[in-house]
Amino acid sequence: MDASVPDFAFGATISPSGVLSPALTLSGPGVGVDMQPRVALANNGAALATWQRNLGGTGVVEGAQFSAAGDGGPATPLSQPSPVLSFPDMAGNAKGNAVAAWGDGTADGTSATIKAAQFCHRPAHANNPACGNGKPPSHG
User: Fold this and answer.
1) Where are the beta strands (DSSP E) in the chain?
2) How far is CA 52 from CA 59, 98, 109, in A?
């Protein structure tokens, strides 16, 4: 891959009738490396995506939510910039809730810690208390 050509994360949805929506640009430019995209889909067609973006010497994990109609939310930084590329992964359920996880380099650069962000489809209720207030992802 040519590192001089910027890399972007894109997303699109497929309708129940099989029509592909126009591609949405989800990320800002990265320095031409594999962005390790991961996607989780809900029963209603909504999608959550995470990826790593190389900023040139540091990397950051980002995420975005978008509807079955193709409406996308802005990319949200999930991690702090790190000299270690993070290789995010994600798991989700049919209700639209998901968790993204990645490795984050320690300040001294000798190891990594595991970080995670939670994506919530709707506000908390008695059967779904872990999803907080339904706002964009929390992380830590």
Assistant:
1) 6-7, 10-11, 24-25, 30-31, 38-41, 47-54, 59-66, 76-77, 89-92, 98-105, 112-119, 138-139
2) 7, 17, 18
**CB-based contacts of 14, cutoff 8 Å, min separation 6:** 20, 21
In a domain, 105, yes or no: yes
Residue 96 in any domain: the answer is yes
Report pLDDT digits (tens) over 82-133: 877 778 899 988 888 889 998 887 777 787 788 888 887 654 444 544 554 4
Segment 122-126 long-range contacts (CB within 8 Å, at least 24 positions apart): 122/95, 122/96
Decide if 1 is inside a domain: no
Domain count within the chain: 1
